[in-house]
Please model this.
Amino acid sequence: MRSQHYLGRPEAGQSVAYTGTHGVISNAVADHIHAVIVWTTTTAHIAVGTAPAATTSDFPIPANVPIPLRISPGEKVSAIQVDTGGTLFVGELDL
Model:
């Protein structure tokens, strides 16, 4: 399978803190957004959806590594800690 690289113009960015309780970005991505870059300051589990609530069963991502994700307009991203709380950053990409 070929790797996908999301090269797009950065647009709006959001951040939210997470701990043993999930954090979710306040605003859904814009109507024309289909990709985001997410990263966390500590290892975390992430979820994407219209009302996501990340749990420890969700996909884990490493700390401080930008991860490109496909997303649908109107969706949000949520994160919860693996071991230590941190901050989730979400950057919208206009493809």
Remarks:
- The first strand starts at residue 9 and ends at 18.
